[in-house]
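TA notes, week 10

Several of you asked for a full example with nothing omitted. So below is the full record: C-alpha cells for the whole chain, then the designed sequence directly under it. When grading your own attempts, check the secondary structure regions first.
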C-alpha cells in the first residue's frame, strides 16, 4: 500500500475480492467518518490508484428571520464568539 501525503500512516492491506469489491480498513473508515453510501472518484496516478472522496455540496441555511428581526447588534461579536477572539 502506498503511503499518504498527509500523514504517511498505513492502515494495513486491502484485497479486491472476486466481485471486484475493495474493503477500506475499519480504523481508516472510522477516523475519516466513511459510512455506507460515501462516494469516491477513482483516479489513476501512474501505477497508483487514488480514491478521492466526493464531499456533499454546502447549503446555506436560514432561520427565516429578517435583518429587522435580528437587530443591528446581533453579529457585532460573532467573530469572537465563533473563533474565541483569535
Amino acid at each position: 500500500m502506498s503511503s499518504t501525503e498527509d500523514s504517511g500512516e498505513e492502515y494495513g492491506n486491502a484485497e479486491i475480492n472476486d466481485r471486484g469489491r475493495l474493503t477500506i480498513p475499519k480504523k481508516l473508515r472510522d477516523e475519516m467518518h466513511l459510512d455506507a453510501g460515501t462516494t469516491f472518484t477513482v483516479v489513476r496516478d501512474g501505477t497508483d490508484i487514488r480514491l478521492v472522496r466526493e464531499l456533499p455540496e454546502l447549503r446555506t441555511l436560514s432561520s427565516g428571520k429578517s435583518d429587522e428581526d435580528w437587530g443591528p447588534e446581533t453579529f457585532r461579536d460573532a467573530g469572537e464568539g465563533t473563533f474565541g477572539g483569535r
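The longest strand covers residues 40-45. Use that as a sanity check on your answer.
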